Amino acid sequence: SSPAKPSGNRPQARAMSDASGSDADDARPGRGKIVQRQKRELKELHQRQEKEGNKLTSFAKAKRENNKIAVRAEKRDFEEKFRLLEEELLKKHAEELASYAPEDAPVETPSAQELLVQLQQAAVLGGAEADEADGNQKSRAQMKKERNAEIGKALRDGAN
Q: 121 near 87, Cβ under 8 Å?
């Protein structure tokens, strides 16, 4: 009978936490949860870009095969595709956070377009810094982390 008892406690604990967490009138998730989900979606997009980018032909191989122009064009197309996907995702996130603002509090929030411009500027600045770096693995990882932090900060600041 003891194995049944712990499994019986879990739903009760969940029900208790659900009851205490749903005291608010609206049933939508908190702003922090939305920001967390948006960061996760952005991170997943960047990971997918990196994973698919690894499948592209390397420049060294293209050089050996005298195919540099085609490979560079393919890389430009690839980067443009993901830049557009990221832009679309950021715009969707900005609109989602803008719609999250409470109706009764007259808080001045930047429009979705203004927030998108801010996020794009942060991404461009992050890209410019990455070009200046010596290109080693650690500095690229650091630049990526800083860029993600800037985007997250811009999302938080834009909704406040």
A: no
Cβ contacts of 11 within 8 Å, gap of 6 or more: none
Of residues 136 and 70, more confidently modeled: 70
User: Using CA atoms, how far apart are residues 112 and 89, in angstroms rounded to an integer?
Assistant: 12
Pick left, alpha or beta for residue 109 (phi over 0 → left; psi -120 to 50 → alpha; otherwise beta): beta
DSSP 32-89: HHHHHHHHHHHHHHHHHHHHHHTTSPPHHHHHHTT-HHHHHHHHHHHHHHHHHHHHHH
**Alpha-carbon span 24 to 88, nearest angstrom:** 31
Backbone angles phi, psi at 21, to 5 degrees: -80, -20
Nearest to 159 by CA among 104, 95, 85: 95
Q: What is the largest CA-CA distance in the chain?
A: 73
Q: If you average pLDDT over residues 39-66, what whole number do you get?
A: 91
The yes-or-no verdict on residue 29 having pLDDT over 90 is no
